Amino acid sequence: MTKSEKNLQAKRISFSYMTYEKNSGLLGSLHDFVHRRKRAVHAIHDISFSINSGEIVGLLGPNGAGKTTLIKLMTGILPVNEGKIDAFSGINPFEKSSAYLKRIGVMFGQKSQLIWDLPPIDTLIMLREIYQIPKPVFEKRLSFFTKQLAVSEQLQIPVRKLSLGQRIKFELICAIIHYPEILFLDEPTIGIDVSSQSNIYRFLREINKERKMTIILTSHNTKDIVALAQRVIIIAKGEKIFDGTPNALISEHASQQIIEVTTDSPIEPLPIDLIELGDCHYQFLSNDSAQLPIALAHILSLKRRDGDLDEILVGLFSKLEGKK
């Protein structure tokens, strides 16, 4: 499969679900028993994109933006309400056909497929049977994966006795033991140390390069995106607001430098464009035409610098929150 071929295409997809509002207290519960109030939540709205074979794409957005829901739509866990997801030129993920499931790998950082009281090798042997991997091939892959991720000595240790970093690495091995063409990672480095993160980054870059494996990941850790993603899609309130390279995202906001301000007293109410960093310490994005959102008489110090990806996203998400 060449890089120009599409692994996934989303065409104007939308997804919503119904939830219920609940009143507090006994009387509220009795009222809800008779008159339940429904509320529609629009998690994904009219999103389109295509992902080529071999791309590493990062999905970014604030909490509740719809990132995990989008992953669930692409993996077939949830059906789209409107639009269409087309995988490998003709497959609908929600049909859950073996032709699709055998070609994808999925890892959710907060959900485990490892069996808590058994060693990782038992889960991996089960996956070997599920994916019908020949034993010599399986053993060669497993040896390579565990060596690269430095967990060879933990294969026979019960999962409950492993460190978080070791468990995450075995979760990753479970997701790629069959060498999927698309690997979905939802918060793959959540809660693990810097050394383990670096090890996982190097491993994923190598797998992507050697196997042309498409990787789609969500993360609140921008280090994941900087280290891995060739392209980012930003989602906010269920809508796509950016699709391009990380450098393009930074360049788009490069003219909006970070201004850090220290004031003589707290600013109340806080303007939409201003982000509070600490007591009397604020920052905002600025360009040449922007007006200072603070009276000069209250400024004790002012510092201008270019923003990094973290700061650009903080500013972007804060503005979106202010538009609610």
From TrEMBL:
InterPro entries to which the protein is assigned, alphabetical: AAA+_ATPase, ABC_transporter-like_ATP-bd, ABC_transporter_ATP-binding, P-loop_NTPase
ABC transporter domain segment(s): 28-262
Domain of life according to the entry: Bacteria
Pfam families hit by this protein: ABC_tran
GO molecular function: ATP binding
Keywords recorded for this protein, A-Z: ATP-binding, Nucleotide-binding, Transport
SUPFAM superfamilies: P-loop containing nucleoside triphosphate hydrolases (SSF52540)
Protein name (Swiss-Prot/TrEMBL): ATP-binding cassette domain-containing protein
